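Marked as duplicate of an earlier ticket. Keeping the data here for the record.
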Amino acid sequence: MDKNPVTAIIVGAGHRALVYSELAITNPELLKIVGVADPNPVRRKMCMEKFGFSEDMCFETAQELATRGKLADTIINGTMDEQHIETAVPLLECGYDMLLEKPFAVCEEEASLLKECAKKNNSRVMICHVLRYTPFYYSIKERIANGEIGEIINIQTTEHVSYHHLSTSYVRGKWANSKKCHTTMLLAKCCHDIDLMMWLMSETKPTKIASFGGKYQFKPENAPEGAGNICMVDCPHVDTCVYSTKRLYIDHPDRWAFYVWDKLEHIDNPTIDDKIALMKSDSPYARCIYKCDNDVVDHQSVLVNFENGATGTHNMVGGSAQSLRKIHIIGTKGEISGNFEESKFVVKKINPSPDAFNEECDIEEIDLNITGDMVGAYGGHGGGDERLAADFVKFIRGETPSLACTSIFDSMAGHVSVYRADKSREMGGVPQSIEF
């Protein structure tokens, strides 16, 4: 079996693609980055210097790259969601395999097109459902696969999106307006969670879905009296408003740096004065949170019915004090509940014997001992990023991948469920059938 490093070209040198490409630095025997395609010359130069390839392997677009034929084994496609068709199709047609960021398509028609393209070209296309790779969710999946709680009756997932994450990404930022980014909140943020539900329920399939949700907080009528348009220019609430750009981004300049300071990428080491100037400009991150062009929901609930009669729910609530992902799975022999941020879960197994640990059930508490940066969104999705990249190498080499590996074909259930859930929401909660 070929043990040379898998060669890859980055297409869309944004945050996610660079995170996965880091495997080429930490484990060069597994992955080698040999080129980049990105319209931003600063990012092209950065990749060239970081990974040590020549300028003739730098391209402005995926289309330009495709005209050169196949120059590597794979593509790491980290382009924006609405660009996946235009960047993926020509490269799959060239014979590349691909690691493709989620959501892999913004609508059902595009999902089908990409799936058929992968099938026609016999392409290995793996989708970046990174939360599957975290020790937390992977351990839960192993317990279910081993039959420890029997057959699943009901699965409940919850995601609370913190106030600073919601405001940065989904009110002021790239995923705030579905007409511009072509994705909904459920697709952009919670396709992770819906995918996890489908993965954990992989012995059956979803058949019907219903959903409610809306935009509750961030609209002009909720702005404080006298609020300005640019927080640090004309707003009297700049030092008191929870969502003030001064408080979110100047007082915490490193928290969402990759997004908020993207217009300063041409400066090697931007100063705090550079950042203050940007927050007084026309940057989308400088705007009053209540006067943006956001149209995505800030809360949504989803109910799923499965073919075998099981049910599932997902609740997304934005604007919470802290980020939170929780899960509770009830089976015929027991249950599992846990908190992703704490990297802890509890397994309770039915045991009616007199010597049962507590109330006729046995209880096992699992602490995965993941602390610090590895837990939060800034430290690698709870430890999943590098594990996903390493599993991609196995997937490409034809080796046996992990339980978490998801091809484009495996990913259809979660994506179609999201599309139909949003259709239900738009129709006031009318249940939608699911076929894929």
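See parent ticket for discussion. The CA atoms of residues 375 and 382 lie 4 Å apart.
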